[in-house]
Amino acid sequence: MTFNDEFAADLRQSVAPAGVITNALRWDILNDWVRYLNSDQLPDKTAEMSYLWGFIKVDFGGDALRCLWNKHQSSYAMFAEIVWLLHREFSEGAGADHHPLFAGLPPIPADVLYRKIASASAVAWRGMSEEQMFERLSKAPQDYAAMR
To answer: How far is CA 79 from CA 43, 52, 105, 139, in A?
Structure first.
């Protein structure tokens, strides 16, 4: 399953709706996570190098990631909300409450989720280093919780 973003292709990245960005990233991450879990190439799914080469370093979501980082610049609250939602669904296991495709999937450790987004973002958006992106992603859920 892939996200069809043709209807939003003419939107400027800085004005893309947060819901569109969240959905695009959600399905790309979910697809990569399921592929990783079902792959026979890396049998120990909890090993750090397994996460790195089987999940984190798989590129995804170029346009959605550029939109995410544009939100970081134009509306930090929206950026933080998107990251909080992804963290909640993937790392805290709340995704199964919203969609049956999440049912039975183990959560993605938060640092692995943030590293994946930062790794792919470093290719899609050159405004910061991968490490700076990781730091901002790691901080965003707490920032959003404080804003609520």
So the answer is: 34, 25, 25, 11
Q: State the burial class of residue 130 (Cβ atoms within 10 Å of its Cβ: 0-12, 13-18, 19+).
A: middle
- CB within 8 A of 146, min separation 6: which ones? none
Cβ pair 88, 108 in contact under 8 A:
no
Q: pLDDT of 37-93, one tens digit each?
A: 888 887 777 777 778 888 888 877 778 888 899 999 899 999 999 999 999 989 988
d(CA 107, CA 118): 18
Nearest CA-CA partner of 135 in 123, 120, 118, 116: 118
How far apart CA 83 and CA 23 sit, in angstroms, is 12
Better-predicted residue by pLDDT, 103 or 113: 113
Torsion sign, CA atoms 45, 3, 116, 78: negative
Cβ of 52: how many Cβ atoms within 10 Å? 15
The tokens of 101 are what? 């495709």
Closest listed residue to residue 117, CA positions, set 65, 50, 46: 65
